[in-house]
């Protein structure tokens, strides 16, 4: 099984390389040598990306040959071990994370002022990358819990990086929410262990494989609710989304991009794992949990979008938009339809890039002009044409305009929902799309209006940003735009997220998603 | 008829993709700084090549009856299918586009955004061809959306305020229509299991889902087609666009909506798939046809009524477009309603698509020429141009004759065919459909009157101002474009067989509709008495209408705003926005209110923990309260002093100074309170205490001033020492006897009470919390945030636990 062991080695590397690299950058940051630091950061992040891509290819090859790979790292207490496993959904997530973080770091090189504190930022982000990859590749609930808690805590210093009172307030709120959520997850994991003596992720559901009649129904529902609520805090499921609209504007823009793009997605990922590989589709239908989740998710899609319309601060608007878009995925999983699930998984990946790109744009705008509020961004298109153009493109992608990437995910999602008979779900999704247009169009319109004299163009001081830093930020913005176009236009190519997502839906639901 | 599964062709995707490629090349050319002339020539040649490509496709399509091609894009491949009907639309599109591009090279002479216009125009040509040649609904949707959004760029090209407003309205209608179309397509897919256009699949068992799918797709295509009541964007958008763009919009792009409706109706009325299996018609096919008929009739009638009342030339043409789209929809709907006998009406509708593209395109181009030379489109100020711009006048006359349905021009043919179809529908359906014919004739009369008005006011009436020599025929490129279109109008009028029997009839027979009536009609349409009688009747009505209108001033009437759907759409949009903003405000206010109440509840809970703390002697509490009040007074005065400092400070520095003063005065006073309370404990009499208080309360201003001095000193140095504080206090306050000993006690007690204050915040306590430099302040802040965040979360958790309990109880 040399193939399997090389794959598990790759998985291990994918988790450890960023962590050690991040620690290295963090500690070596005190010498504050820009070129060397950038080189190390670049090597580590791009190296992790390369490892993850190789791992994904190897996984796809192995999946077509019917092999699975799992590697046990170490054992805590005999039944509880920390193990990694590479399957399609995990590989897709790991690839998304590993692709977005280098872009975010590139933007951060331009966004953060050039002092010794930037290396702390880079170090923390790299370690978070490793932990998130660990979450994506975990083979059982305990591993997932371990890496999940680690990266949740690591997000706090990144949120409060700018050390403004607003950032501290947001950081405390984030901590309270995440620690409560973590407590609930812990209770849920403990319950699962009590019910099934193990917390392994099994396709078809761990608990389904146990004797259903023997398991107390109350215990099952309690475990399900605890886990959903606990992960739902991170996944910004309403009404547990309170930390999101405060954390995003407070954090520096590159980390907001990572927050919105992948961290919230990791919460959704954990929900998917729990629902599909701990409980399993059959058990879920039996328990009757899915209509509740659909209700919460549906309300989240619409309510978050409505609240987004009311926000004037650009980053807060984008934060509410993230809540709304991530609820699409929770809504999709309640139908247990493979095409819908494939669409939802592809949508997560595409969303990571266009939402990340939107945050990059917001960060560039903030750094170069000091503008936070949309109502003051009149005429920005003339001052920053490339950033404004990419912002328009990414906003159109979010609205679901073909042939950009947002459309591909929505189309697959929608056709899956329609086929499965979830017409209410479909109506909610389309209403969410319409509201996305409602809250994104004013931004586009305002940017391309003609500036008038006497327009207040400042919301706060703008940093004195040099040419080199501007170029880094622009590079990140343009890269996000190009990726969005590529993922949309070439979505059907092998190796692109849509195909991986279909494979993942296959594996998770056991039914073919090739429609 | 022997069905042929489509044979693959490379030319087909090439023809669709070529304008896109040309746009890219043109963009590169423009960026590398080629001359205007070269750019114009290239763009015109590109449009011409597209036209040539479409013409070249005619032969193979007629031979094979269907061509299939694909491009790898999006979720796999996007499919193209060319059958004769699609090719008819494509031909009309390519023709009008070529003429419009030629015209635009002359119109955009001094425009700085020429490159953008031509590039967008080419991309839209590609999208348009993609829609009409689409093989499955995904491709159709893709191209439809690109077309819709690209047209926005053309509408707002001039950048005027009116253009922007029209663009916004157009954008919202397009987005809503697009979402509706997407919903319809997905429902259709759920019903029939396939995305192919040429395949109908299982018709379902008459479920309400069919009506939903049809209605949603009808709305989606109807917005594009300018069908009432979704037409509101059209009369604003078409006039504000530059004339070549208006010609494209009116002449071609709205036809895409009609194409979509035609395909949907077609799928519903049964036929054969590409592979030769027959599929049954939907049970609701005839009803769908009837819905489209009535919508078409309403559109045509109200369109022409509103067109008659217009004063601006381009708005009149835009409303006339709405009306003519009604003709097309009526024709298509009748064709489906009559099923196997509907060839006449369908063919009429399809021919009218081509016809309208030609004459409306020519009319818009001519109106553009008038605007170019005279600078106005207001018909009341124009006139007398027949002498100054004779060639334009000739072209306009022919185009107006075409649209009015005068025999020997193309409009007559298509209108007659639709008329015959409506008569047959009235015979078959009875009831309300009998009135359809009269509505049709009335609308024809109205159209005639409308264009009598147009030609009369623009060209023939006595002008208000004398035109000078600059008012002459437009540049040759524009004239060539107009003349080309007008020639085609004449050709189709005199020899409609070429188009009808060449493309449209074969197309209908591909869709398994018997086309004998069409041939029968063509063989003696010029000699049909009934048609001429209808025409005569219509002319008389038209003249009567014109005279009545001009005599009684009916043409100037305006209906109140609220009668029109536009007002209600706008109100709806505003209402939605207001709802969103209101909900957002409500949520944040409620959140704050609930937060506050939860925080207070938490505080109350914590205070329960220290109930055992009995308050000390009332005297001491009173003293402490008084000291606290003293502290507040000092703080306020210090702040005011800081704010009224001489303003050689920046705003930022002043804010910092105020903050510092606030904090240092607090620190000073806390020290004062500690020492005072320590002394009060051992005081001999109340009188001494009261004396001290009265003396101290006189010194608040001096205390404030020393706080300010300390703040200014602190700004320059790094820290404030305890000794500095003590010195300031001693300088100002009346002396407290025995301070040194009580100082030590006070300092010891300070740590213990600080710790206690960190955990609890008792309502009564007589030892204040020290605001030492780094710990106390941070602790207070963290405590505040914790309460806030916990209060925030507690509602959510409470909700969740309540629901959890509900679920558990449900078992």
Question: Which terms summarize this structure?
Answer:
heterodimer, A: 515 residues, mainly alpha, two-stranded antiparallel sheet, 20 helices, 2 strands, globular, B: 811 residues, 3 domains, 3-stranded mixed beta sheet, 75% helix, elongated
- Give the total of domains of chain B: 3
Structural class, judged by helices and strands of chain B? mainly alpha
- Enumerate how many helices of chain A there are, as a single number: 20
Which strand-content bin applies to the residues of chain A? under 5%
Describe the structure.
The complex is a heterodimer of chains A (515) and B (811). By secondary structure, chain A is mostly helical. Chain A has one domain. Chain A has a two-stranded antiparallel ribbon with strand order 1-2. Chain A is globular. With 811 residues, chain B is mainly α. Chain B has 3 domains: 552 residues, no CATH class; 89 residues, no CATH class; 158 residues, no CATH class. Chain B has 28 helices and 5 strands. A 3-stranded mixed sheet of chain B has the order 1-2-3. In chain B, a hairpin with a 5-residue loop joins strand 4 and strand 5. In chain B, helix 6 packs across helix 8, helix 10 packs parallel to helix 16 and helix 12 runs antiparallel to helix 17. The two termini of chain B are 64 Å apart. The chains are: A mainly alpha (515), B mainly alpha (811). Chains A and B meet through helix 6, helix 8, helix 12, helix 17 and helix 18 of A and helix 5, helix 6, helix 21 and helix 28 of B.
């Amino acid at each position: 099984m040399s193939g399997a062991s090389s794959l598990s080695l790759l998985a291990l590397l994918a988790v450890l390389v960023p962590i050690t690299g991040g620690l290295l950058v963090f500690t070596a940051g005190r010498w504050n040598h820009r070129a060397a630091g950038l080189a190390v950061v670049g090597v580590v992040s791009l190296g992790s990306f390369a490892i993850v891509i190789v791992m994904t290819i190897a996984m796809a090859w192995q999946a077509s040959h019917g092999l699975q790979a799992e590697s046990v790292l170490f054992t805590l207490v005999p039944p509880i071990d920390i193990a990694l496993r590479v399957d399609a959904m995990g590989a897709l997530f790991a690839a998304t994370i590993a692709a977005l973080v280098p872009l975010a770091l590139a933007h951060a090189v331009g966004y953060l002022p050039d002092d010794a504190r930037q290396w702390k930022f880079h170090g923390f982000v790299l370690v978070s990358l490793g932990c998130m990859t660990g979450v994506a590749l975990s083979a059982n609930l305990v591993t997932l819990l371990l890496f999940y808690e680690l990266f949740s805590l690591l997000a706090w210093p990144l949120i409060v990086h700018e050390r403004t009172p607003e950032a501290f307030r947001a950081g405390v709120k984030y901590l309270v929410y995440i620690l409560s959520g973590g407590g609930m997850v812990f209770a849920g994991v403990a319950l699962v262990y009590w019910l099934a003596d193990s917390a392994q992720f099994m396709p078809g559901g761990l608990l389904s494989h146990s004797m259903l009649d023997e398991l107390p129904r109350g215990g099952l529902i309690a475990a399900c609710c605890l886990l959903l609520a606990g992960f739902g805090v991170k996944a910004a499921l309403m009404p547990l989304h309170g930390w999101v609209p405060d954390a995003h504007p407070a954090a520096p823009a590159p980390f907001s991009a990572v927050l919105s793009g992948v961290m919230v997605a990791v919460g959704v990922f954990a929900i998917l794992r729990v629902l599909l590989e701990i409980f399993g589709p059959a058990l879920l239908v039996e328990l009757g949990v899915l209509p509740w989740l659909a209700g919460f998710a549906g309300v989240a899609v619409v309510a978050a979008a409505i609240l987004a319309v009311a926000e004037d601060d650009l980053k807060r608007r984008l934060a509410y938009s993230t809540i709304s878009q991530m609820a699409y995925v929770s809504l999709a999983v309640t139908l247990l339809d493979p095409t819908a699930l494939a669409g939802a998984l592809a949508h997560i990946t595409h969303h990571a890039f266009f939402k990340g790109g939107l945050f990059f744009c917001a960060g560039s705008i903030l750094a170069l002009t000091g503008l936070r509020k949309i109502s003051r961004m009149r005429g920005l298109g003339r001052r920053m044409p490339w950033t404004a153009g990419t912002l328009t493109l990414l906003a159109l992608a979010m609205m679901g305009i073909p042939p950009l990437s947002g459309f591909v995910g929505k189309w697959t999602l929608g056709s899956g929902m329609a086929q499965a008979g979830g017409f209410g779900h479909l109506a909610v999704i389309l209403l969410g799309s319409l509201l996305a247009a409602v809250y994104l169009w004013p931004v586009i319109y305002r940017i391309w209006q003609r500036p008038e004299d006497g327009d207040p163009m400042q919301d706060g001081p703008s940093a004195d940003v040099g040419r080199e830093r501007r170029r880094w930020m622009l590079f990140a913005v343009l890269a996000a735009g190009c990726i969005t176009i590529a993922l949309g236009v070439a979505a059907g190519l092998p190796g692109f997220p849509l195909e991986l997502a279909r494979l993942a839906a296959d594996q998770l639901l056991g039914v073919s998603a090739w429609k | 008829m022997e069905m042929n599964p489509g044979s693959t062709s490379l030319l087909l995707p090439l023809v669709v993709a070529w304008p896109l490629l040309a746009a890219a090349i043109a963009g590169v050319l423009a960026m590398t700084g080629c001359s205007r002339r070269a750019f114009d020539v290239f763009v015109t040649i590109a449009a011409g090549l597209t036209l040539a490509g479409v013409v070249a496709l005619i032969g193979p399509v007629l031979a094979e009856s269907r061509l299939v091609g694909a491009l790898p894009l999006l979720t796999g491949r996007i499919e193209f299918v060319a059958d004769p009907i699609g090719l008819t639309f494509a031909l009309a599109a390519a023709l009008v586009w070529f003429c419009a591009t030629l015209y635009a090279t002359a119109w955009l002479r001094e425009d700085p955004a020429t490159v953008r216009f031509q590039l967008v125009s080419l991309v839209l040509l590609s999208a348009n061809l993609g829609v009409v040649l689409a093989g499955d609904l995904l491709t159709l949707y893709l191209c439809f959306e690109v077309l819709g959004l690209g047209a926005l760029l053309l509408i707002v090209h001039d950048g005027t305020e009116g253009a922007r407003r029209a663009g916004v309205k157009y954008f919202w209608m397009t987005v809503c229509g697009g979402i509706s179309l997407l919903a319809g397509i997905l429902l259709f897919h759920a019903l029939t299991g396939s995305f192919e256009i040429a395949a109908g699949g299982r018709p379902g068992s008459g479920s309400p889902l069919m009506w939903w799918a049809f209605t949603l797709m009808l709305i989606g295509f109807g917005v594009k087609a300018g069908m009432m009541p979704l037409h509101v964007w059209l009369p604003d958008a078409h006039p504000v666009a530059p004339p070549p763009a208006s010609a494209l919009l009116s002449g071609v792009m709205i036809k895409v909506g009609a194409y979509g409706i035609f395909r949907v109706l077609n799928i519903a009325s049964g036929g054969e798939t590409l592979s030769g299996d027959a599929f049954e018609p939907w049970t609701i096919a005839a009803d769908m046809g009837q819905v489209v008929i009535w919508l078409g009739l309403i559109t045509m009638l109200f369109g022409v009524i509103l067109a008659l009342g217009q004063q601006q030339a381009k708005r009149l043409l835009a409303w006339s477009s709405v009306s003519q789209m009604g003709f097309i929809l009526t024709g298509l709907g009748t064709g489906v309603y009559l099923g196997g006998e509907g060839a006449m009406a369908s063919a009429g509708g399809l021919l009218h698509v081509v016809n309208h593209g030609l004459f409306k395109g020519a009319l818009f181009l001519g109106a553009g020429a008038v605007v170019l030379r005279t600078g106005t489109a207001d018909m009341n100020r124009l006139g007398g141009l027949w002498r100054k711009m004779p060639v334009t006048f000739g072209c306009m006359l022919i185009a107006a004759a075409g649209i009015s349905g005068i025999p020997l021009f193309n409009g007559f043919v298509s209108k007659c065919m639709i008329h015959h179809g409506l008569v047959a529908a009235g015979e078959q359906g009875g009831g309300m459909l009998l009135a359809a014919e009269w509505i049709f004739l009335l609308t024809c009369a109205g159209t005639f009157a409308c264009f009598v008005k147009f030609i009369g006011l623009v060209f023939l009436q006595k002008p208000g101002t004398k035109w000078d020599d600059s008012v002459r025929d437009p540049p040759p490129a524009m004239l060539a474009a107009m003349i080309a279109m007008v020639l085609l109008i004449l050709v189709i009028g005199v020899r409609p067989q070429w188009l009808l029997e060449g493309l449209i009839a074969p197309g209908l027979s591909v869709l398994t509709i018997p086309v004998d009536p069409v041939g029968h009609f063509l063989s003696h349409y010029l000699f049909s008495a009934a048609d001429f009688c209808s025409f005569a009747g219509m002319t008389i009505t038209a003249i009567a209408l014109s005279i009545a209108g001009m005599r009684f001033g009916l043409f100037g009437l305006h209906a109140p705003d609220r009668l029109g759907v536009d007002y209600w759409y706008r109100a709806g949009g505003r209402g939605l926005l207001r709802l969103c903003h209101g909900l957002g405000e409500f949520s944040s206010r409620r959140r704050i209110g609930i937060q506050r109440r939860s925080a207070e509840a938490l505080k109350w809970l914590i205070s329960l923990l220290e109930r055992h703390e009995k308050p000390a002697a009332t005297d001491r509490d009173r003293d402490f309260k008084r000291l606290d009040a003293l502290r507040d007074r000092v703080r306020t005065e210090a702040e005011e002093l800081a704010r009224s400092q001489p303003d050689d400070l920046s705003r930022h520095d002043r804010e910092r100074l105020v903050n510092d003063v606030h904090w240092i005065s607090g620190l000073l006073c806390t020290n004062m309170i500690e020492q005072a309370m320590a002394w009060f404990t051992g005081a001999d009499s109340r009188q001494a205490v009261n004396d001290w208080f009265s003396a101290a309360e006189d010194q608040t201003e001096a205390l404030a001033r020393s706080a300010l001095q300390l703040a200014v000193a602190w700004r320059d140095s790094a820290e404030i020492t305890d000794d500095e504080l003590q010195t300031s206090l001693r300088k100002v306050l009346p002396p407290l006897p025995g301070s040194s000993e009580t100082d030590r006690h006070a300092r010891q007690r300070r740590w213990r009470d600080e710790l206690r204050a960190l955990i609890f915040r008792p309502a009564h306590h007589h030892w204040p919390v020290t605001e030492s430099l780094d710990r106390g302040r941070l602790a207070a802040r963290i405590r505040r945030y914790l309460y806030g965040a916990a209060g925030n979360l507690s509602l959510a958790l409470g909700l969740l636990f309540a629901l959890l309990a509900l679920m558990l109880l449900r078992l």
